[in-house]
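Journal club prep, shared notes

We agreed each person brings one worked example of a sequence with its structure written out as tokens. Mine is Hydroxyacid dehydrogenase. I'm keeping it raw so we can talk through how to read the token line rather than staring at a rendered picture. Sequence first:
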Amino acid sequence: MTSNVQRMTVAALEQQLPPAWSSEGLRHQVRLLNEARNRKIIVLDDDPTGVQTVHDIDVLTQWDEELLAEAFDAPEPLFYILTNTRGLDASDAERINREIARNVHKVATLKGKAFTLVSRSDSMLRGYYPLETDVLSEEIARLSGTVFDGHLIVPAFFEAGRVTSGNMHFMVEGSELVPVHETEFAKDKVFGYQNGDLPAWVEEKTEGRRKAEDCLVISVEQLRQGPDAVMEVLLRAAGNVPVIVNALSYNDMDVLAMALLKAEAQGKTFIFRTAASFVKSYAGISDQALLPKEKLIAAGQEQHGGIIVVGSYVQKTTRQLEQLLTYPGIVALEINVEQVLQPTGRKEELDRVIAEANRQLAAGNNVVVYSSRKLIAVDNKTDNLKISQTVSESLVKIVQSLEVTPKFIIAKGGITSSDVATKGLAIRKARVLGQAAAGIPVWLTGDEAKFIGIPYVVFPGNVGGDRTLLETVEKIEG
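Then the structure, token by token:
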């Protein structure tokens, strides 16, 4: 929910700032420097949407030593590990981060390679901060003796209109800048917050352990003076200090990436809490056009329908679902959430949806399976998480029970798309092909998956306009 005050536009904000630093060719230089460093950038992604800015890299859904060894041997300087911790409780999130840190350190030591960890989370500030960066920092220090000078907080995500200026993080609606603490996302039942001002947010989330005035800040103005000016700020970092990064564009982010490489070359060590855009710049990933229709349909399955699975409850998802349901011929299968929360009614409800989904897919019809839109919530965070998990488990059960190979699969929402990937489709490692639309990644399932070689569209709950989900299906159908 946003207030009705007159808001600044992006254009008006830019007029108050210096012009962007000329960063032509900078990202390619970053890529070459990364390739020369014999290190891996490893992104621990708390839901599967974080690959929404990259292409032609691998995402792992498990982190055993064998799979990590494969990832370290791959030629790319970057890979992702899907942790799905945003859909878990805090104790599981801590356990998973510690386990990954241990396994990564062991494999990296055996391979003789360095690594840097990026904790990728929501551009709307939801997730387990500071728990995840604290745990990773502690575990790496224990295993290797490395003490981080700072942890960078970089929530900008340009493809979805998330920008940061004056330490305030914004969501762009139309052309207006809405402070994130005034949006529905700040009222999240599990990860809500009061402050969109990032130093104040750090103090809020750390419960005063880190004071707002203790944060280092990298301003847009400093970024637009070039990498050396930013490096000077980074060289002051010590004691794993929070470093707030403002950014309005990839020009700004590419400058940050080069400054980081320069500071790291002088011995500074950092860990990162970021949204998706940072990874593209820091790893030096090139731009790529949106994927064409041909990349979104499974070869040999054109006669079947596709399936869209919707679990997210944010208002944007509900509006997108309403638009999708206007698509001619689409078959709507609503799951009654109140019924699946009752042990006695769950099997009957799921059996009904499973049978109809298989029938319609075989007939060549596209199917949208979605949880009823009435949000069932309680005051207790743990119980709210359990409700979300039960709904997601129900959607997973439907995917597990598909007997017809769909020509495409779209999953809407972070928890939903993660559970569909790992449990519904049994994906162990997938290849990120690119994006179907801005901020909407597409995986190609591997040989171990329930359906081999199927494009899997991971559609975040908070990305796109009201028609983007409908337009994605229209694009697939030509």
